[in-house]
Design brief:
single chain, mainly alpha, 89% helix, rod-shaped, transmembrane
């Protein structure tokens, strides 16, 4: 039991690989947020594309 405890303690204190874990956690949080708000994000993107299309059409009709 002491050997397992020491192994876990050594693994916990080992800082090698922590950056990878931190990056993976950040990516996971971003993915969860994107999934939670996908409807709002898609609506926002569609409104931006619609606005851009309207502006292009204004220039085409004037030219």
């Amino acid at each position: 039991m002491e050997k397992i405890k020491n192994s876990v303690k050594q693994f916990w204190n080992d800082e090698e690989g922590m950056q990878t874990l931190e990056i993976m956690l950040i990516i996971a949080v971003i993915v969860v947020i994107a999934l939670m708000f996908r409807e709002e994000i898609m609506g926002w993107i569609e409104s931006l594309l619609q606005f851009g299309g309207d502006e292009i059409n204004k220039f085409e009709s004037n030219g």
